[in-house]
């Protein structure tokens, strides 16, 4: 489990095809590896990766075909800059929101607009994921916990302050950039619980009437 508060940035220094999937090496000069053990999880651009080899300046992890299918890892190249966050400890401050590192899909930056000292980014998400993205709700974009400040059809707006941009890869975002998107997991669990057993054989059918019946809205 993660918070979406990025600890450091790093670089993909090796990408090796290995028996049908991918082995990656991540190098970072400012991620503290002292307390990292083999088998620990590190969110890498929002993707939960397991450390299979540890170095003083980074780690190696395996990326499965399922992860390659749902994330941007299949298109990354050596030199790609990534956001890094070690798994949450019970004593850590929860500064962002609960992030699982299980990416739901890909979002695309469609507009970048100045907003005083901040910058507004409009992202387009897969239509089937927009129901999980509420106004003033949380999303993880390349592993960064961010607040949704506006909605427009299949698009949502993020307002990024200078500090967040400087400490993450957001500084490199531009129109056309594709990003890993994880929606708030509470919304997904809520849908499953309300629908109950029929959801096992049906596609998502969460409606206002179901929410009202469950007592969540009037």
TrEMBL record:
<feature type="domain" description="Lumazine-binding">
    <location>
        <begin position="1"/>
        <end position="97"/>
    </location>
</feature>
<feature type="domain" description="Lumazine-binding">
    <location>
        <begin position="98"/>
        <end position="194"/>
    </location>
</feature>
<dbReference type="Pfam" id="PF00677">
    <property type="entry name" value="Lum_binding"/>
</dbReference>
<dbReference type="InterPro" id="IPR023366">
    <property type="entry name" value="ATP_synth_asu-like_sf"/>
</dbReference>
<dbReference type="GO" id="GO:0009231">
    <property type="term" value="P:riboflavin biosynthetic process"/>
</dbReference>
<feature type="repeat" description="Lumazine-binding">
    <location>
        <begin position="1"/>
        <end position="97"/>
    </location>
</feature>
<feature type="repeat" description="Lumazine-binding">
    <location>
        <begin position="98"/>
        <end position="194"/>
    </location>
</feature>
<keyword id="KW-0686">Riboflavin biosynthesis</keyword>
<keyword id="KW-0808">Transferase</keyword>
<dbReference type="InterPro" id="IPR026017">
    <property type="entry name" value="Lumazine-bd_dom"/>
</dbReference>
<dbReference type="GO" id="GO:0004746">
    <property type="term" value="F:riboflavin synthase activity"/>
</dbReference>
<comment type="function">
    <text>Catalyzes the dismutation of two molecules of 6,7-dimethyl-8-ribityllumazine, resulting in the formation of riboflavin and 5-amino-6-(D-ribitylamino)uracil.</text>
</comment>
<dbReference type="InterPro" id="IPR017938">
    <property type="entry name" value="Riboflavin_synthase-like_b-brl"/>
</dbReference>
<dbReference type="InterPro" id="IPR001783">
    <property type="entry name" value="Lumazine-bd"/>
</dbReference>
<comment type="subunit">
    <text>Homotrimer.</text>
</comment>
<protein>
    <recommendedName>
        <fullName>Riboflavin synthase</fullName>
        <ecNumber>2.5.1.9</ecNumber>
    </recommendedName>
</protein>
<keyword id="KW-0677">Repeat</keyword>
<comment type="pathway">
    <text>Cofactor biosynthesis; riboflavin biosynthesis; riboflavin from 2-hydroxy-3-oxobutyl phosphate and 5-amino-6-(D-ribitylamino)uracil: step 2/2.</text>
</comment>
């Amino acid at each position: 489990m993660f918070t979406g508060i990025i600890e450091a940035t790093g670089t993909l220094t090796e990408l090796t095809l290995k028996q049908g999937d991918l082995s990656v090496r991540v190098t970072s000069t400012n991620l503290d590896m002292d307390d990292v053990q083999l088998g620990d999880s590190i969110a890498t651009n929002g993707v939960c990766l397991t450390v299979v080899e540890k170095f003083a300046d980074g780690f190696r992890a395996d990326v499965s075909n399922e992860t390659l299918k749902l994330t941007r890892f299949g298109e990354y190249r050596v030199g790609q800059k990534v956001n890094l966050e070690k798994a949450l400890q019970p004593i850590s401050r929860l500064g962002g929101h609960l992030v699982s590192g299980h990416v739901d899909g890909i979002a695309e930056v469609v507009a970048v607009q100045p907003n005083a000292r901040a910058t507004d980014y409009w992202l387009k998400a897969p239509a089937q994921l927009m129901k999980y993205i509420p106004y003033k709700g949380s999303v993880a974009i390349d592993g960064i916990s961010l607040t949704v400040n506006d909605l427009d059809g299949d698009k949502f707006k993020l307002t990024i302050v200078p500090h967040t941009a400087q400490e993450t890869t957001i500084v490199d975002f531009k129109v056309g950039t594709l990003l890993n998107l994880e929606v708030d997991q509470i919304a997904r669990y809520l849908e499953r619980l309300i629908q109950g057993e029929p959801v096992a054989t049906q596609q998502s059918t969460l409606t206002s009437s179901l929410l009202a019946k469950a007592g969540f809205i009037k």
